[in-house]
Amino acid sequence: MSPALALVAASVRTHGRDRLQPTTLEFAAGSVTAVIGRNGSGKSTLLSLLAWELHPSSGSVHVLGDDAASLGLVELARRRAILTQDSTVSFPFTVGEVVGWGRFPWRSTERAADDDAVIMASIEAQGLMDLVDRPVTALSGGERKRVHLARVLAQQTPILLLDEADSDLDLVGRRVIDDLVLDHSRRGDTTIVVSHDVDRMARVCDRFVLMREGRVHAAGPPDEVLRPGLLSETFGAQVVVERTGGHVSVHLPDAR
Amino acid sequence: MTDRRWLAVAVLLVLALAGAAAVALRLGIADPTPDIVWGIRAPRVAMALVVGAGLAVAGALMQGSLANPLADPALVGISSGAALGAVAAVAVGATYNTLLTAGAASLAAGAATAVVVGVSMRERRPEVVTLLLAGVAVTAFTAALLAVIASVSASASGRTLTFWSSGSFALSTWPGVLSVVPFAVLGIALAATVATSLDVMSLGDRAAMASGVNVPVVRYRALAAVVLLVAAGVAAVGVIAFVGLLVPHAVRALSGPRHGRLLVLSGLGGALLVLAADTAARLVANPLEIPVGAITAIVGAPVFFLLIRRTRARQGGWA
Q: How many Å lie between the alpha carbon of A116 and the closest alpha carbon of chain B?
């Protein structure tokens, strides 16, 4: 079976600077991968490349077996959804309308017949039934994030990419994201998460990719990758890894 | 907001328009002969309807395509660019109220649009405040050139600087109306093709692209429609500010932000507002006329002020 996503010797160079060294990396269907590393290490570049928001300076990107360069925007939007930290909406559209935009790539296809059912199911799954006619501009940050979660759910893509989507969320909001990721992978869908929250990622992800200075420093299952030596190299600082029960805690030594 | 309610708003606007047009055709004429009504007053009313609809639809398109609630064709220099194009064309031999002059206005307005939008883009995304600042610069520059040409060109001096800066329907003729209508029709047709995509673009460029919207294509198509809807009208009646700001915001408050209905209702509302403003411009100091743009500005500027505060609050402040 071909991987859901693959980079083949793909590099990114902008403004005379290498943002990503030539990288070959595969993401199996149904896998949940966390991409971690310091700020500026190339995490978001990697994700944008996989999302085909950035185009490689060399090499290629493959989405569900096809070269992304051969896929139009709409076809890409049928294959992968992206959730980011930004959840602003410029005008006071209702929750129902915003979630409905997830169906945009399915316009004038047979699947458009399911639009209403899919939108309603996504709204219900995020517990937004009471807010469906409310303008999103009147919601709290956490509620708005749920609206966008429902929107990318309604997009019904086999691939989900999260770009620091959890960074402005409280404990409960982060749990909502984790649940979404787990649901997604149980359905056999592929998820890639860029996050700074290594401990949480260790619970939901089956694989880690460590980024350092624009290249993949290490990649593998949590047990192999979440080791003090590797992490200390990745972050350029001494990192402590503690395992208690099923949980992993990754942190710097106690402050002086 | 049910579909029936926005249709009801549309019907009410059409009725109000019909009433306002009937009043405007008759009011303020001592001796309403058919010659005066159909030869002088009717083209004036028709021009107000076409120009008003174009300005309001253009405002809605700009706000949607640039994710900028503060955008208005006159505030960002597009109208001023169109006026310069018209005056320059007349200075080199064209005639007012013709397709040629309207076309020249469209070219200049297109150039002004390219400059302000180009300057306001950062990492291929539009910035709210930069667009308005670029508009200040473009307006100052084009207005200065217009003043120079209008001062030295005998052929262009038929219209005063006040006409260009504040607008007037007093010089409207049937040929003038016919020089604007083709541009307006093209602009509306182009606008209709982007309505649904503009809804999704409220998410911002990145999320809209990820949802399958070809953001650059939709944006430039919407801005091309703006130029078509604004420039020919400016060539005929001068710059009328704030219509593109007032009407779409009023419509959103009434029937929600969806662009399909927003564009339709803004067209009707813009026609109504400008016709009412022109009627007021004729009547409040009768027999003297005040510039129609002064009336829209007196209403529009305070609303603009409120919108600045609200937009800044929503965006979390500007540096």
A: 16
Supply the pTM of this predicted model: 0.90
- Calpha distance B87→A102 (Å, rounded): 47
Chain B 33-72, CB below 8 Å of chain A: which residues? 63-64, 67-69
Q: Is the pLDDT of residue B89 over 70?
A: yes
- Which tokens go with B307? 């919108």
Contacts A74 to B, Cβ<8 Å: 212
Q: Verify whether the Cβ–Cβ distance B211 to A102 is below 8 Å.
A: yes
Kindly state whether B221 is in contact with chain A, defined as any CB-CB distance less than 8 angstroms: no
DSSP string, A148-191: HHHHHHHT--SEEEEESTTTT--HHHHHHHHHHHHHHHHTT-EE
CA–CA dist B211, B196 (Å, integer): 12
Using alpha carbons, list the distances in angstroms from residue A256 to A38, A176, A239, A247, A252: 22, 35, 15, 26, 11
Residues of B in contact with A97 (CB under 8 A): 199, 258
Name chain B contacts of A73, Cβ cutoff 8 Å.
Answer: 209, 212-214
- All structural domains of chain A with their residue ranges: 3-251
Q: Is the dihedral of CA A145, A151, A157, A158 positive or negative?
A: positive
* Single-letter code of the amino acid located at A6: A
The answer to whether B209 contacts A73, with C-beta atoms less than 8 Å apart, is yes
Altogether, the residues listed in chain B come to a count of: 319
How many residues does this entry show for chain A? 256
Of B212, B257, B314, Cβ closest to residue A105: B212
Would strands A190-194 and A207-212 be described as parallel, antiparallel, or unpaired?
unpaired
The alpha-carbon gap from A25 to the nearest alpha carbon of chain B, in Å, equals 22
Give the model confidence (pLDDT) of B144-197 as tens digits.
Answer: 999 999 889 888 888 888 889 899 999 999 999 999 999 999 999 999 999 999
The CA distance from A220 to the nearest CA of chain B, in Å, is 28
More confident position, A105 or A90: A105
Helix and strand totals (H; E) in chain B: 14, 2
Name the residue among A88, A90, A104 with its Cβ closest to that of B212: A104
CATH architecture of A3-251: 3-Layer(aba) Sandwich (3.40)
Residue A81 forms beta bridges with which residues? A160
How far apart CA A141 and CA A54 sit, in angstroms, is 28
Strands A80-84 and A66-67, sheet pairing: unpaired
